[in-house]
Amino acid sequence: MYTEGYMDLGRTFAIRLMQHLVVPTFVLDAERRVLIWNRACERLTGVAATELLGTRHHWQAFYDTPRYCLADTLVLGRTDHLAQLYDSHTLPSDHTLGLSAENWCVMPRAGRRLYLAIDAGPIYSEDGKLVAVVETLRDMTETKLAQMALHSLANRDGLTGLANRRAFDTAIEADCRAATQDGTPLALLLADVDHFKAFNDTYGHQKGDDCLRTVAHTLESQIFRANDLAARYGGEEFAILLPGVDLEGALQVAERLRGALSDQAVPHAGAPGAGVVTMSIGLAAGIPAPDMTPKDLIDIADRALYEAKNSGRNRVVGVSLTPASI
């Protein structure tokens, strides 16, 4: 009797302790019903415990469509779902250990989007049966946003907002390797603003910076696929990587880019002809040879750009990737 009373007292104390923890915490039973939804969890999510206790609706506090929370994957033994559900996660070394994960949560009731670090740990009975899973949450939004800002600073050109040379070098290495391994096409466009020195001499360097921003915005507005990359290659020169695009497709994109900049009609009194800012584009596209390197690809596109500028500027010259083009 004394032992049973002492255990009941311990359970009551544990529940009260969990309710008053400053860490947002909830507990699911072996049927995935909410046993505990502490006050810190109410404050984080904007959802009262009275709405969730005894239900399986806890996902509604974090997401706007039904999906598993981390505790659910432990109860169900569905750790194979983790990669689909979370930006990052750990895998338990055995079934008795917990899980850790991180993810953006839309927080519908709270009306804010938060990046949460999540831990879930199982509780077993003496005979080894799962009786509950405890999930704790930490708001890591500020840390995540700071990390994203640092990543952006490291990979974005400060003037134009496009990818910088460092990001371009990383991307072309990966794209070139994938294209040579898979035998798929790859296109590289090198674009150079025509008579840019004359533009700076005529209007000054501040207007020159504005001109480069306009060019960058024009390029970015015409690049529609998520895996394409527009980068500031250096000075007034820009690079565009188009994975999976052959020569015909690359020529179409290049002409669209060239025309879009001309249509901006940025005045350029120092340029002959139309009197507006234009650009020349050299491109290399096709299925790379197995031994082709990023430097080879850049050299081919650069020679095409040289030809475009020497043959009158404001034009596109394309080269097909063949062994003879290296």
UniProtKB/TrEMBL annotation:
Q: Superkingdom of the source? A: Bacteria
Ranges where the PAS domain occurs: 16-54
A GO biological-process term: regulation of DNA-templated transcription
EC class: transferase
Protein name (Swiss-Prot/TrEMBL): diguanylate cyclase
**Listed GO molecular functions?**
diguanylate cyclase activity
Q: GO cellular-component terms in the record?
A: plasma membrane
EC numbers for this chain: 2.7.7.65
* InterPro entries documented for this protein: Diguanylate_Cyclase, GGDEF_dom, Nucleotide_cyclase, PAS, PAS-assoc_C, PAS-like_dom_sf, PAS_fold, Rev_trsase/Diguanyl_cyclase
Report domain GGDEF positions: 184-321
Residues of the PAC domain: 99-152
Q: Which Pfam families match?
A: GGDEF, PAS
Reaction catalysis annotation: 2 GTP = 3',3'-c-di-GMP + 2 diphosphate
